[in-house]
Write a structure and sequence with these properties.
heterodimer; A: alpha+beta; Aldehyde Ferredoxin Oxidoreductase Protein, subunit A, domain 2; 3 domains; globular; B: 78 residues; alpha+beta; Ubiquitin-like (UB roll); 4 strands; 17% helix
Chain lengths: 661, 78
């Protein structure tokens, strides 16, 4: 009764053998579950330099240590594997209802190696795990596949399904894995790994109990946080149309101060992530025109169409991921706007709206609903796909691509018909879409070096829709995380909200009236903050926690107390941060073993302000990213120049012994 | 005197807050008094983008010692 199940399932798709493995307590005590368990298992079992799309790569579905224990906002799962997109450690985080289903089958993780001869899916119920022929499902989209499998395995309770669509079947390196009919583990190209294994889906229908050590304490923490979230709201007088003004007011001044993360919750409850559609433009958070523009290029006359209230009018149903008390999800009726093909779609996330909106100067919201649904069904990552289309448009506008290359598509900024057509081609790997389906870095190899200046990425992965020229610490995480380009690892803003310094002895306190310019200067304080971000995010991802709960503040969402209540370990936040450091260091060790030079993950010059923007809210902003990365590595106990974990750090963290390597 | 903890938005004049965000007010002070002292922009003031101890509260509410006063502060998400 420590929250975790104590074993994993391994499925060898080449031989068809399926076996369980016990995981010793000490692994959970040192790596938690979730991403930490995944890092432990993959480091031990994937041979060095394995082909990411070959039989030696291992794909894992891991739950979180706190999932199912009675804790809240701890229902997230991760896909883990060697990434075919970056060549290094790959993980991708997703919500929905799959995470508890993994544990209800009796496992903390379900892993796959080998390659099946024909398409298969895994089904687990009270009779145990079995592989089934999926030839009839191959070629179907993820939503259809999920509906068919739920119907086929109908029981007293609805089973949980994760599946892939056409893009992943066709091994697009920017494809993901879907669950709950379109929630996506989109990052790192792990859909292609699933496709390479001919694994169409997993269907989970277990009924094992999940138990924590101190249920009463978990209940107390849950009640306290639940009450705060319930009360967190703001007056109906606040409309989406006011968000740009609010953004401007809040961005005034040259200093910032510590904030109460709980006060970010009302926005999430009202709109979900889409409030950023318009809130993020006046302050420069939203990238515009392939990261080379600003609100000057996509002004109010265009971005007003992205007003979150317009989207909310279509929201027929709100939904919460498993154990979530915030509930930022929704289902939108789009029967009249998407050429009549789809009745509904998940409320598009901000990332999708901006990737296919401001980034492409596209004001046609209807096209975004449509793209949202085809990407969900085809299981293609909207962040990478939007960035890749932005790259293609810039190539076209500058004569590198012509209509001959695009099969007649006029790939001009804001041409929504061409954007929709190209998105479809990418999912199907048709024409130019075949070149673009593997993201910008691969596309440069085909289209030519001249286009590299438009290929915005970090280590091969296209970045999330937040601009590091506004938040340089975000840029450190884009560049220095073992899985680069992700906006969900850490940021200066996250650090200010979660108030880690109230719990962790070495986390620097954000002082009142801190000059914003401090974050643009490489310093040990900035480095310690980014290290703290990395460590706490590992703990969150080892627990099944949600980023938005973390940001609401660790004095509100009491993660450390939750973990102690679930496990009975009774260790300090500093002890947990050491576990986070161990998890992050192991992920970096994975990359080093694969031959990755960490400096090669440095984000594209354009988004570091080289050259700086000439107008807009981020005019002139430069992020000295190389020095910041080096400081980050040094503060982690890794080599300052190379980014490789130092022997003494690996020894201090006892990683070699724990992995028995 | 009473001591109230203010979690500021990034937009307010915080010269009157100490390093931990506390401000000292005379007994009987209301939310309206606090907002005036902090020179809150009218848009925040009029829309009511704040909470008192995580609850909605009117401008007339009398503050008590150790109260926590927070401004709505959105964060970018994905």
């Amino acid at each position: 009764m420590k929250g975790y199940m104590g074993k994993v399932l391994m499925v060898d798709l080449t031989s068809g053998n399926i076996f369980e493995e016990d995981i010793p307590d000490k692994i959970y005590e040192n790596f938690l579950s979730g991403v930490g368990l995944g890092a432990y298992y993959l480091y031990k079992n994937i041979p060095p330099k394995a082909d990411p799309l070959g039989p030696d790569n291992i794909l894992g579905f891991v739950s979180g240590l706190l999932t199912g224990t009675g804790s809240v906002v701890t229902g997230r799962w991760l896909a883990v594997a060697k990434s075919p997109l970056t060549g290094g450690w790959g993980d991708s985080n997703c919500g929905g209802n799959l995470s508890p289903a993994i544990k209800q089958c009796g496992y903390d993780g379900i892993f796959f190696k080998g390659i099946s001869e024909k398409p298969v899916y895994l089904h687990i119920d009270k009779n145990g795990p079995r592989l089934y022929d999926a030839s009839d499902l191959w070629g179907r989209d993820a939503v259809e596949t999920e509906e068919i499998l739920i119907d086929r395995h109908k029981d007293k309770k609805k089973c949980s399904v994760a599946s892939i669509g056409e893009a992943a079947e066709k091994l697009s390196l920017i494809s993901g894995i879907s669950n709950d009919k379109g929630r996506m583990a989109g990052r790192s190209g792990l859909g292609a790994v699933m496709g390479s294994k001919k694994l169409k889906a997993i269907v989970l229908d277990g009924d094992k109990k999940i138990e924590g050590n101190d249920k009463e304490e978990i209940k107390r923490i849950t009640k306290e946080y639940g009450n705060k979230v319930k009360k967190a709201s703001f007056p109906n007088k606040l409309k989406g149309s006011m968000l740009p003004t609010m953004s401007r007011v809040m961005d005034m001044g040259s200093t910032y101060s510590p904030l109460n993360g709980m006060m970010s919750i009302p926005m999430m409850k009202r709109w979900g992530t889409i409030f950023t559609n318009t809130f993020g433009l006046p302050n420069g958070d939203c990238p515009v025109k392939n990261w080379d523009g600003s609100i000057k290029d996509f002004g109010y006359s265009k971005y007003k169409y992205m007003n979150p209230d317009i989207i909310i009018k279509r929201e027929e149903k709100k939904y919460h991921c498993y154990s979530c008390v915030i509930g930022c999800g929704g289902i939108c009726n789009v029967s009249d706007v998407t050429r009549g093909k789809f009745k509904e779609t998940h409320k598009p996330e901000y990332e999708t709206v901006n990737s296919f909106g401001a980034l492409l100067l596209n004001k046609d919201l209807d096209s975004i609903y449509y793209i949202n649904e085809i990407m969900n069904r085809g299981t293609m990552d909207t962040i990478s796909a939007g960035n890749t289309i932005a790259y293609a448009i810039e190539c076209y506008e500058n004569g590198i691509l012509t209509e001959k290359d695009t099969d007649g598509l006029k790939l001009t900024w804001g041409n929504s018909e061409a954007i929709v057509a190209l998105a479809k081609k990418m999912i199907k790997r048709e024409g130019l879409g075949d070149v673009l389906a593997d993201g910008v870095k691969k596309a440069v190899e085909s289209i030519g070096k001249d286009s590299e200046k438009y290929a915005i990425n970090a280590g091969g992965q296209e970045p999330g829709m937040h601009d590091p020229r506004l938040d340089p610490i975000l840029g450190i995480h884009f560049s220095a995380d073992p899985t680069p380009g992700r906006h969900t690892v850490g940021a200066g803003q996250y650090y200010t909200y979660m108030r880690l310094w109230e719990h962790v002895s070495w986390a620097p306190k954000v002082k009142m009236r801190t000059p914003k310019e401090n974050n643009y200067v490489p310093s040990s304080e900035v480095a310690i903050k980014s290290v703290a971000n990395s460590c706490i995010k590992q703990i969150v991802d080892g627990s099944g926690g949600c980023l938005f709960a973390m940001i609401s503040g660790l004095s509100n969402w009491r993660l450390f107390d939750y973990l102690n209540a679930a496990t009975g370990w009774n260790i300090t936040p500093d002890d947990y941060m050491l576990i986070g450091k161990r998890m992050q260091t192991l992920r970096q060790m994975f990359n080093i073993r694969e031959g990755i030079e960490p400096m090669s993950f440095k984000m594209h010059d354009r988004i570091a302000g080289n050259p700086p923007l000439k107008e807009g809210p981020l005019e002139g902003k430069i992020v000295p990213i190389e020095d910041m990365m080096k400081n980050h590595w040094e503060a982690f106990g890794w080599h300052k120049e190379s980014g490789k974990p130092l022997e003494e750090t690996i020894a201090e963290l006892n990683i070699t012994n724990l992995l028995n390597i | 005197m009473i001591k109230v903890r203010v979690f500021p938005g990034p937009f307010i004049d915080i010269e009157l807050l100490d390093e931990d965000g506390f401000i000292f007010l005379s007994e009987g002070s209301t939310i309206r008094d606090l907002l005036k002292i902090l020179r809150i922009p009218k848009i925040i003031y009029s829309i009511g983008l704040y909470t008192l101890n995580y609850n909605k509260a009117s401008l007339k509410t009398v503050l008590e010692n150790e109260d926590e006063f927070s401004f709505i502060s959105p964060i970018s998400g994905g």
